[in-house]
Amino acid sequence: MEAVKETEHYTIITQLNDGIERITYTPRDRRRDTPILMQHGMWHGAWCWAEWQDLLAKQGWESHAISLPGHGASPAQKSVRFSTMGGYLKVLEQEVCRLPNKPILMGHSMGGALAQWYLKKVADDLPAAVLVASWTAHSTMGDGALLHLKRDPVGFMLVGCTLSTHPFIRNAERASSMLITEGAIYKPEELYGKLCEESALVLNQHNPPLWRPLRNPKTPMLWLSAERDAVVSLKGARKSAEFYGADFRVIDDAGHNLMMEKNYAETAQEIHHWLTTMT
């Protein structure tokens, strides 16, 4: 399956091949040889990057957003609740290998954790990595778990009982309180309608002893944190950026889904400026 859309500034190609949805924005005025590969987080799909893909394409960046199996338009290969970080990492590794040039890897939330797994377990040789409201370097527990428990103790209990993280986003109110703030480009019901099932196993796998972060990575890193993040604490994000030696930015008055908050354009511009100095 392939769909092509031509615009004034770029071409959008949406494909579903080998069970993976890929959305590619190719600028008419391509000014960068290095592509950007975008990895979504829990419950999301390639669709969540559309606004940033638009803005970055207008700056001359080619970008590729993928949907993991069972997310977006990618069909499930098995029950999503039994998906693992290892399985997701294999998909991401294959997508990196598909590109003619090594990409800048951009990951949101769980996708940021996958970017960390790629650098640790596959290759620490990318032009750059941009971690967007990412899971922290050392675990998903600690401050992050306390945020979930305080905000939604019932959902926290149900996740443990069902092996699914869907209870965290079980209705539009819960999903929006976790992911966005007032003025986001998606309304709560609209966002909730696009979210999907997600495994709870991946939450446990990004913790010791199954996971330990890479020390002194060679890949330059930008860590973006949201001031009003209900998922990842600022304390944990800052500590993680310091551990990796990453450049750290806090996006004011923004929630977890930085790519769809009201100031998404300013955040994309921040990324563009950083990338132009690093690549």
Description:
The radius of gyration is 17 Å and the shape is globular. A nine-stranded mixed sheet has the order 1-2-3-5-4-6-7-8-9, with helices on both faces. It has helices at residues 50-58, 85-98, 110-121, 143-151, 153-162, 172-179, 188-194, 201-205, 234-244, 264-278; strands at 2-6, 10-17, 20-27, 36-39, 63-67, 104-108, 129-132, 221-226, 247-251. It is built from ten helices and nine strands. Helix 1 (50-58) crosses helix 10. The longest helix is centred in the last third of the chain and has 15 residues, at 264-278. 36% of the residues lie in helices and 18% in strands. With 279 residues, the protein is α/β, with parallel strands linked by helices.
Spell out the blueprint of helices and strands:
Blueprint: E1 2-6, E2 10-17, E3 20-27, E4 36-39, H1 50-58, E5 63-67, H2 85-98, E6 104-108, H3 110-121, E7 129-132, H4 143-151, H5 153-162, H6 172-179, H7 188-194, H8 201-205, E8 221-226, H9 234-244, E9 247-251, H10 264-278
Parallel strand pairs: 4-5, 4-6, 6-7, 7-8, 8-9
Antiparallel strand pairs: 1-2, 2-3, 3-5
Helix pairs in contact: 1-10, 2-3, 4-5, 6-7
